[in-house]
Amino acid sequence: MPFNLEGAGHWYRLAGLPEPHHSDPPLLVASGADVAETVAWCNARLADLGSGWRVEPEDGPATRPVVTALVVRRPELSLPDEPVLSVSDVLALLKLRTGPSPWPGPVLAVGSFGFDNPGPKPGAVRQTGPLPELAALVGGPLGRIPVTASLPPPARRPLSALPGGRRPVVALLDTALDPHAPGRPAPWLGDPDPGPDGVWADAGQYGWRRGPARLRPPETASFRSMPKCFGHGTFSAGLIRQVAPDARILSVPVVDDDGTTHIDQLINAFGWLHEQRTADPTFVDVVCCPITVTANLPDDALVLGWLRAVLGALGGAGVPVVVPAGNDGSPVPTFPGAFTALSVAGTPDVPVVTVGALNPDGSDAYYSNHGDWVQVRRPGSALISLMPVWDGDEQPPVRGSAGVGVDPDAFRGWARWSGTSFACALHAGELAAL
Question: What is the pTM of this model?
């Protein structure tokens, strides 16, 4: 592998970063090691320590991963004095030192993070008026609002008119795209096309496999509720189309509609892009990653070190990675943007561009994270872009005295939305246009 993952867990000690929230699940191991040998060692270790828990490799992506997830299995029968109650306990038990010598086992980490919700914003400004329900909706959390638009797809120049005779490629790490938004007969995206003149392509057409779906808590709502990240990738792709109509978009789905994203799959996506770029320098020019990671230090330092290593490799290949500042209205750096705030001897140079959000009048958006680590600010509030068709029943129609109403979760191809993720998409498109 082209990534130096050794010592990845030690960089943070020099950085003095704060310690936010903690989140849990599978164990991760660097794929450069012998995974089968690691699994055998872990299971022998657990058995010697009196635990019935076991680990096994997850059915991974078809593409070669940078890090491999190990599924942790509970024992079928409860053992007396079982020393393990959770995944974190498994890791702690494996790292338990029974003698004075250093722990001889493999380098393992617990592998999931929480990701920011792109919809609600802290301290959202609300309006007043004769219809307070509608006013709260329109001026509320700057989330998705259905709108009507009649806009033709932006015109594209022919390949012969472009520098180098090819289209710049923006890799979009987000939710999957809806090829029909905003609907026929004038879809802005159309069907995925891996050819050199296509508007967009699915990374799966080039062999990318994210990996298996992992179990999540079941939905408990009795009504059809729009997932918090539904349409996020399609909205981002529409913004890139607006500012870089000559570009090609490479969709790399790493986020589920409910916002679930696994850090190992994100690391592996960056690693796969680097591998493809190494084989073909025209494969990707800009990476748009509208994701912010909530991490807990020092527990998550090793995984963040792996993330830093793959970003550094992309930087060495000349590929900028554009990320959002986050929507907490805070000066506290979020990852991957926090890497721009770090100047630590011996760590790789990371080509991360962190983007904050502006209001339509050019002022800083109140929800946008801020500080010297935020390098660029772009419009992020009340943007209009593509949205897949959706008609839910979470929000009932708001009606006036004449009986005419608006259904706040009935989308027909367009939406207004806000967030630093979308400022990030705009800037990625600008880089591609250049």
Answer: 0.86
